[in-house]
């Protein structure tokens, strides 16, 4: 029997709370934009190359949990060292070359530019360590949750996913990623070392991906990953809040990073986010049993 969470809230009350929580996360992301933390994160983010869709597909085929990818020397400039023994993610780099060729129409020599492509290795941030820890980590805008999962959210989400035919496994995931969803294998992975509260939040995030994105073309997800991650984390924040788990410390920074701290992006996802949040909250909860009537004494 699927484990569920007893709730005194009606479906209408949950819907009203979901809309309020969605508005709240947009407001908190807007507030973060003015902070020094966001300024440091923005400087950090500007160092990353914008990869083509083909290269993004190659990256996620080899390392589905990848979040930020760069070359070996770029990571060193960002105060991070690729760990010894880490295997690079193979993609294609390009370089413009100039050559002199004869124009067949005029017979004159002209300079021509073309792009030469060649395989290169890049690495995910999860394959690196900070070089100077005292300098701080500008990427650290989402603080991992500590504490317990008092309501039993994790167990309820796992039962929900397995009931839908998905496999859920705990495994060691290096770096910043706490979980990932593999739609082709219908498998969800959640990092084995997470606190109970963080594991509950991550389970909600991956369940949101299952509801919203599992049936989409993989290239669609990769090309618009910022929006997809914004949607999934917003759902996790909303449903966790309805169930009594405050994920603000993690969710606000996570949503800010993937949405580029754009509250309009968050607001534009409202229809998808609220639809998924309502479905997930309804699936995970059941009304508290009514108190038994006490017969009056004779």
The number of helices is 11
Q: Fraction of residues in helices?
A: 40-55%
Report the mean per-residue pLDDT as an integer.
89
Count of discrete structural domains: 1
Helix/strand/pairing category: alpha/beta
Write down the Rg: 23 Å
Strand content: 15-25%
Summarize the structure.
The protein is of the alpha/beta class and 298 residues long.
How are the SSEs ordered, and which strands pair?
Elements: E1 5-7, H1 11-32, H2 36-45, H3 53-62, E2 69-70, H4 72-77, E3 80-82, E4 89-102, E5 109-124, E6 128-130, H5 153-163, E7 167-171, E8 179-182, E9 187-191, H6 196-213, H7 218-223, H8 225-242, H9 248-259, H10 263-268, H11 270-284, E10 285-287
Parallel strand pairs: 1-10, 7-9
Antiparallel strand pairs: 2-5, 3-6, 4-5, 8-9
